[in-house]
Write a structure and sequence with these properties.
Mean pLDDT: 75
CATH architecture of one domain: Beta Barrel
Order of helices and strands: HEEEH
Strand content: 5-15%
Main location: secreted
CATH topology of one domain: OB fold (Dihydrolipoamide Acetyltransferase, E2P)
Radius of gyration: 29 Å
Strand order of the largest sheet: 1-2-3
Subcellular location: Secreted
GO molecular function, one term: chemokine activity
Largest sheet: 3 strands, antiparallel
Keywords: Chemotaxis, Cytokine, Disulfide bond, Secreted, Signal
Pfam families: IL8
Distance between the termini: 101 Å
Oligomer: single chain
Number of strands: 3
Length: 125
């Protein structure tokens, strides 16, 4: 091999590796939900609710509910019941976030209030 071909090959390898790093990562090659569940789901039985917007790999909105018992179900995003469930879930999640923030503030105020106080000295004149 000639000395001039080595840098050329290294340059091509570098360009190929650089191009691979810039490639977008897709969620899947296809939609995750083949069919949707028509049954109602109670908000208390939910462990997690994920909503995926349409993408180049899947043209429809997908909502996947994970139950506390581990079962997963695809929900119909056009259903009124599912829209209510999503709103209830978002409200529940936002309340948990507020509680976490509020809990930190309460701890800080508790720690501030717990500072030892020195006894006041009487003024002597």
């Amino acid at each position: 091999m000639k000395k001039s071909s080595i840098p050329f090959l290294l340059g091509i390898i570098f360009l190929v590796l650089f191009g691979v790093q810039g490639a977008p990562i897709m969620r899947n090659d296809r939609c995750s939900c083949i069919s949707t569940s028509q049954g109602k789901i109670h908000p208390k039985s939910l462990k997690d609710l994920k909503q995926f917007a349409p993408s180049p790999s899947c043209e429809k909105t997908e909502i996947i509910a994970t139950m506390k018992n581990g079962d997963k179900a695809c929900l119909n995003p056009d259903s009124a019941d599912v829209e209510k469930l999503v709103k209830a879930w978002e409200k529940k999640v936002s309340q948990k976030k507020k509680q976490k923030k509020g809990g930190k503030q309460k701890i800080n105020t508790f720690l501030k209030a717990k500072k030892p106080q020195r006894p006041r000295q009487k003024k002597t004149t």
